[in-house]
Structure formats: C-alpha cells, structure tokens
Amino acid sequence: MNILSLFTGAGGLDLGFKRAGFKVVWANEYDRTIWKTFRRNFPDTPLDTRSIQDIPSNEIPSDVVGVIGGPPCQSWSEAGALRGIEDERGKLFYEYVRVIKDKRPLFFLAENVSGILSKRHENAFKNILKRFEGLGYIVSYSLLNAHDYGVPQDRRRVIIVGYREDMKRSFVLSKPCIRKTYLVDAIADLKDAMPVRGGGEGSDPAVPNHEYMTGGFSSMYMSRNRVRSWNEPSFTIQAGGRHAPIHPQAPKMVRINSDSFMFVRGKGDLYRRLSVRECARVQTFPDDFVFEYNSVANGYKMVGNAVPVKLAEILGKMVCADVLPTITKGTRYLRRGKIGETYLMGVAQ
C-alpha cells in the first residue's frame, strides 16, 4: 500500500508504517542535516529536499492510499514560545492540508505535541480540523502517552487521523494489551558510551551513535530532577542534547528548593546524559538504524524529533486494519472531483 511522507525527519513514522505493511513511495524533508540519515536507512525511497511550500502538487505522486507526517511542532510546544499557527512553522500545517486536498488519499495521519491542545491554540486547532473535514474527511484526534504503547518513555502526543468519507468510518484509537517497557529493557546492555565535548563531532564507537554530549547544565535543566531509575520509563526524549535525560546509573537529584536541584555530592561521575544511541533505543529505533551527523547535537535533534518507531508501527497496523478492506474491495473513489480509476493495494488496476 503506497503512501506519502511529509515533514519526514529521520523516518521514525516511516519505519513504523513500513513494518505495518505500507510502502513510502515519496518523502519530503527540507532540513539538510537529516538527508544522509534518511537516505542511508531508506535507500529505495525518493527524497524531495525542497521546502514543501515550493513543491507543486502535480510533482507529488498521486497513486497513494495515505499521507503521513508530523508538521513542525516547535510552534505548538508548551516548552517553546507557543506561537502556534501564527508562526511560519505553524503555517506549514496548511501545506499538509493542501496535499490532502490535491491527492485525496483514503487516509492521513499527523502527529504533534500535546501543546497543540492548549487553550490558547483552541481556535487555531479547531480551524485546522474544520479544513480537513471540509475536504471530505471524517477526522478524529487523540492525546496519548507513548509509554502505553510499548515505548520506554513518557511521551504525550496528539495523533490526528482522517478517513475519507466514502470509507464510512472514523479512526478509533485503542490501547493495545502489550507489556510496558522501561529503561532497563531499553538500554541496560549498552556499555562504554563515549563522551563528546559540547556539540562537536561524534566518535565511532562499536555501537553506532553511542556517544553523549558533555558540558555544563543550565539553571533551567537543574530546576527539577532529571534522573529516572532503571525500573521507570524515561523522561521525554527532546530534540536537544543539553536537555537529554541523565543516565539511570545516577542517584536521583537532591532538591534544594522548589526550583532547584543538585547532583549527589561525590557521585558526579555518574551524572552523564544519555547517549544518542540510548535516546534512539528509548525511541525504539533498532541499532541498525544509523544516524549520520558531523555534530552530535544534530544526532540528538533527529532522534528527539522522531515519532517512536514502536508507536508508529502500532498506529500503522490500526490504520491498515481499517483501510485494507476498502482497498481490497477495489472501491471506486472520487479523485479530482470525478470518478477515477479503481485502485487495489495502492496500484491502478
């Protein structure tokens, strides 16, 4: 089943949907620091590196059943400026809408941060949903924690799914009966991570990307405990090395006052950030998925911005279960305002 990938990043969502039975036939990513990583791990997928704003719809494949992607989330982040749709990055959501309008896939799935549901963004978010609905889609959204889906971290995200109206159904997010995983399950076997000063070039350890950023910790970082134990899920993996969680080998930080913590005296050597590979493990990337970068900071950015692969796979299987019956029936459906060809498994018959 052929699909498109927008705002692809390193490809966590793509890999998950691939495992669920889909084939990404075209991807788009504008950030040049990500291109080598995507091409290494998805050598058979054409990657368009232009800004989506510069890509005419007629240059994007049409014979697809779905569109996936996560429009840039910084504008909606609770940790950021919360500019939302008024920010240039927030407006890229409308480019996503434009592709859906012109391609008319059976489904689309978009992922974003929980901040998109904040009160200050309520009107903008409702407007986005109405635009999707106005294109003829039954739209639903859910706030989930990736930890409930086999991912060893607390990661709250919003999933927006639209099914074309002729499917006559809506996406219902279910919580699968799977064992929850924790830091011990994800990284206990990884040894001998290598330090890299600041954001400098990465080393070449035996385990790919098993290096961590060194350097000081900001007052904001030290404003709360940053250590989770082995038998706990990780804190959210963020898109910056300086905000990476502390390795669980360290004891919990000591509270000084309401907005300040400190490391346990005499244990300072235990307080290191998780390595890029450890963060990738927490994001459920396999070890053979190698991140290419000259600056370790870019490694953390790619990993932190990704959708956890395990979560993506589960979502992909849920969507597949809904979409596959429609496709296998050879349903004739509307394209460009008129009855188009019959499509089976994403290929014109």
Report on this model:
The protein is an alpha/beta fold and 349 residues long. It contains eight helices and 14 strands. The strands form four sheets. Strands 3-2-1-4-5-7-6 form a seven-stranded mixed sheet, with helices on both faces. Strands 12-13-14 form a three-stranded antiparallel sheet, with no helix packed on it. A hairpin with a 2-residue loop joins strand 13 and strand 14. The longest helix is centred in the last third of the chain and has 20 residues, at 309-328. The radius of gyration is 21 Å and the shape is globular. The two termini are 13 Å apart.
Give me some keywords for this one.
7-stranded mixed sheet; 3-stranded antiparallel sheet; 349 residues; alpha/beta; globular; 8 helices
